[in-house]
Amino acid sequence: MPVSRQVLQGKPRLASGQRDKSVTIQQRPAADASVTSGFPVESWTTLATGVFMARLELRADERFTVSQESAAAEASWHMGYRADMDPELVDVPKRRRLVYRGKVFDIVSASMIGPRKGIELMTLAGSAIA
């Protein structure tokens, strides 16, 4: 079934053969380290590299705010099931993010696709335009 027809009937589901993006998954430690000033320091470590996912672009937006341009893009990522990314076991939006081609994608929601068939991640990537 063509993707355009799937969109009319609901969310498109991407087949595993379309998982052609090699993505790095990063994780935030349970408690971020603090410097002597008492302010938290955000640190990320690599959880997994070379995780193949499919990406579906949803929306892009560009704005001019506070004397600078900024852009944001929303995307849906589909991946195979992984226990360390299971939204029922891990607070994925709070503890995980994706890196693809050097660009960081913050996870805003995670949901299961079928009974442990896969995971769908909704992401937001933003950048300042010079």
What does this structure look like?
- By secondary structure, this protein is mainly beta.
- Helices cover 8% and strands 53% of the residues.
- The protein contains two helices and six strands, in the order αβββαβββ.
- It has helices at residues 3-9, 92-95, and strands at residues 21-27, 45-65, 68-80, 96-100, 103-113, 118-129.
- β2 (45-65) and β3 form a beta hairpin.
- Residues 1-10 have low confidence and may be disordered.
The major beta sheet can be summarized as: 6 strands, antiparallel, barrel
Number of helices: 2
Beta-strand content: over 45%
Shape: globular
- Mean pLDDT, rounded to whole units? 79
Task: Pick out its properties.
130 residues; mainly beta; six-stranded antiparallel β-barrel
Q: What topology emerges from the helices and strands here?
A:
Elements: H1 3-9, E1 21-27, E2 45-65, E3 68-80, H2 92-95, E4 96-100, E5 103-113, E6 118-129
Antiparallel strand pairs: 1-2, 1-4, 2-3, 3-6, 4-5, 5-6
Q: What's the quick description here?
A:
With 130 residues, the chain is mainly beta.
